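Q: Is it fine to ask for two folds in a single conversation?
A: Yes, each is treated on its own. Send the first.
Q: Here.
A: Result:
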Amino acid sequence: MSISIKNNEKVSKYLDSLKFAFYCLTHPMDGFWDLTHEKRGSYAAANTILFVSILVRILGLKYTGFVVQVVNWERINIFLYIASIIFPLGLFVVGNWALTTLFDGKGRLGQVYMATCYGFLPYPLIMIPTTLLSNVVTIEEAEFFSALSVVSLVWAAILIICAMGQIHEYSGGKNILFMFASIVAMLIIVFILMLFFSMISQGIGYFISLGKELLFRL
């Protein structure tokens, strides 16, 4: 009986934290403050929003009308589409958190991840109906699809900027500077990763050529 009560409490808390994401859409300043400082958010809800966002992006390939988008399935790599969300998310979260010491930020790594995922919510909310409507629009109306896609991304970006300001307790100007620095940090991380994998590739190539040379001499 006690296990059932605990499970019900977990489900109720999960649903409340997921519902709270909709409050953050229209009240980002208060919402993202309460999300972390008042513990109104949860990792389960954040993961759900991230999963739905990825799913919507993938399903958009199949169900978006041909008037709006023509898909060449021979060149489609589903893993790249998944990585197109997860990789930038990981870069932003790590880069953002890495700068908190330099900028006296208050947020923790988990809080940055949670708030960023909550900020993704406009994307699936707008793209789900937009994808369905793309099958009934004309060529002249197809431009609205692109416009709505941009709106979903801009809205999500605004929410994430507000979230970072509330989590780290920054003023408006400092938050904008911090976000710019986070983008620079993302680029630096990409450069380091490219350099690292280049060195690994060269090292592997060296040992392979060395092994071939030894086999040839033997």
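Q: Second one now.
A: Result:
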Amino acid sequence: MIRDRIKSGVKKAALKFFGMEFDASARPVDHQRGDASPAAFDPNLIPKVVDGSGDTPGPKHREDIGRTWLASQVISNVSPYLIDIRHPNECGAGLIQGARLLPADQIKQRLDLLPAKEMRVTVYDQVGSDDGSVLAEWLREQGWHLARRLRGGYAEWIEHSEPIMVPASPEGCRFVVGQQVERLDGGRFWVQEAGPGAVYTLWTEDGTFTLGVREDELRR
């Protein structure tokens, strides 16, 4: 019992240190993670702190978040809602673990996908450009006051070998994220998402998107 109280105290202190206590209780328990005992801890998971390359700003910053802070949250299973705004052809090789691909400013038309407004949101592009800053600022204006841009973007993230995921299409899908396809009724698109039953979300350069496109409506 004493050990449990100590562990609980350490957890609360860590959440307070990282500025994450406000939404930790809303996170689902991941039973696949197992017992985080000292014997099972892998020190290689500690994000590398490199002077001037992502160790700042911290989660208290009003506009940005740094790579090491975000990586700490991701590996602790308390990451924010992550929005990848890159072009789909940049994402086939990987996204930040747990991110949702919503190119450019598509999220403006899909606000129903966002979490409650008191939750954290992080926007990132390839290099941490102003596009991410502008979108994060717009989200804050809409009430998501904890929306931030990832400083350095995806390029800095992979440079330091932080956790990523490769988009995986469900079994039976011919097309994958980032692939260019043509609809039989006309038009060229990029695959943004591939879902069960070989149903796709398609995206075009002009920022429009189409949900629920069946595979038999497409060709290379």
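Q: Anything structural to flag on that second result?
A: Two points. Residues 2-18 form the longest helix (17 residues). Residues 180-219 form one domain.
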